[in-house]
UniProtKB/TrEMBL annotation:
This is C-C motif chemokine 19-like. It comes from Cyprinus carpio. InterPro entries: Chemokine_b/g/d, Chemokine_IL8-like_dom, Interleukin_8-like_sf. GO terms for molecular function: chemokine activity. One of its GO terms (biological process) is immune response. Keywords: Cytokine, Signal. Pfam families: IL8 (PF00048). Residues 34-99 form the Chemokine interleukin-8-like domain.
Length: 107
C-alpha cells in the first residue's frame, strides 16, 4: 500500500529526473554552439576547385578547441552557402591566399 509520503517522494524524484534530462537542451554553452560548427569536410573534385575559388566571398577558421570537434576552414560563398574544408588541403590554402591578396589590394 502506497502512503502519501512515498507518493510525494516519487513525484519529487520524477520531477528532478525530468529537469535533469531537459537541462542540456536549454543550457547555453558549447552544446548549443554546434549549429555553427563543421562536423565533416566537403568532398571537392579537382575539376570544381577553380569554380569554388571564384564563388568564395569570405572565410573563417574553425578551431577544435572545445566548441567544435574538428578544425576547418569555413568558406562563405556568394550565394550565402557555406563549405567546410580541411585546412591542410592545398586548394584550401590557395583560396585563402587569393582572398587575403584580394582583401589587401582593396585596402
Amino acid at each position: 500500500m502506497e502512503t502519501p509520503h512515498s507518493a510525494m517522494k516519487f513525484q519529487i524524484l520524477f520531477l528532478f529526473l525530468l529537469l535533469t534530462c531537459m537541462y542540456p537542451s536549454v543550457a547555453p554553452g558549447p552544446m548549443s554552439s554546434y549549429e555553427n560548427c563543421c562536423l565533416t569536410y566537403a568532398v571537392v573534385k579537382k575539376k570544381n576547385i577553380g569554380n569554388i575559388g571564384k564563388q568564395v566571398e569570405s572565410y573563417r577558421i574553425q578551431e577544435s578547441d572545445g566548441g567544435c570537434n574538428i578544425p576547418a576552414v569555413v568558406f562563405t560563398m556568394k550565394n550565402s552557402k557555406t563549405i567546410c574544408a580541411e585546412p591542410n588541403q592545398t586548394w584550401v590554402n590557395k583560396v585563402i591566399q587569393k582572398l587575403n591578396k584580394k582583401k589587401a589590394d582593396t585596402m
